[in-house]
Amino acid sequence: MSTKDTPNPLQVVKYLLGRPLPESMRDWVVRDVTGPGSRRRYIIRGVLPFVPILLAFALLVPGPFVYRIGMIALLLIPLVYFEIALMSIYRRHLLTSNGLDGSLIDVKRQARREVTRSEYEANYPRNPD
Fold it and tell me: Superkingdom of the source (predicted)?
């Protein structure tokens, strides 16, 4: 992979903020959104901006440590929950905003369904009348 096929750090930040990448980097976008580890990257990218706020609660709020951890959990649990709930919508948006087909997200799922269906049909053939 050449350097012009991968974005530089400034382009990555713009990409994560919603700016489309040049057409020469579309393969990188597809790998980023649908490749191995894409779900993990999505969750990390969503939680990372909130780390300073969570650290501020942990270090600056007076009170017992258990209360501070509880405050962090009350913020972190819904954040991660909604990150997971909106994952497919945001990943589809990243693809379409970069000029790609949003249905690329479902390629692996469709392949798994086809394999499962073919195994099922091999094990349970239809009755020939």
Answer: Bacteria
